[in-house]
# Entry
Amino acid sequence: MREFRLALDKARLFDLGCSGDQLTWCNRQEAPHTIYECLDRACGNAKWRLLFPNSDVRLLSSIYSDHAPILIELSPGVVNTNQFARPFHFEASWIKQHDCEELIKKAWNMGIGSTGQERLQQNRDICRSKFVARKQMGCGTVTKEIKEFELRIAQLRNRPLTSDIKLQEKKLRTKLEELFQAEEILWKQRAKAHWLKEGDRNTHFFHSKASGTFQRN
# Structure
């Protein structure tokens, strides 16, 4: 196993993981002598993961062989051939998302390099691919979430104003304020306007400034 891990490290490959059952081999003996093991793995490198961030690895049913076939589904991931044309930029507003820290923690423990430097590079690339996948799927789109919460608040206001409704509205408004802060951070970063004071919220202006910056670039 040590030699196998060293070979993976040398080729800069890592285990892609597997959803669902991960036991790929069975000795096909009757109970109580049945043995299951995880002997087979699907491997890829960091560039492959960035090209197919939403890929899924799963095992198929094995009828005749003692090894279960491994299927790698590229969809619903979208292949972006321009992935490396632009450098990856971490959006500061992502920090405001409730699951950001958990996503980083999980991704940061997936590297299997034999040296600290190799594990650091693998963890960084895997973490980056996770955020790229979220961005492609539209997850955590601040503007979209703001509209959804504004709609939910408007719907509550059309209902009889009970204590329960007031409590629900308070919770929604607290979340909405967090989203506004995230939106402010997003456009502050994109507009590169470092002189924006904390608490100012001229989103329309910064949206225009950021768009103009992208056009020039």
Q: What stands out?
A: Strands lie at 14-15, 25-26, 36-37, 43-44, 56-59, 70-73. The first helix runs from residue 2 to 10.
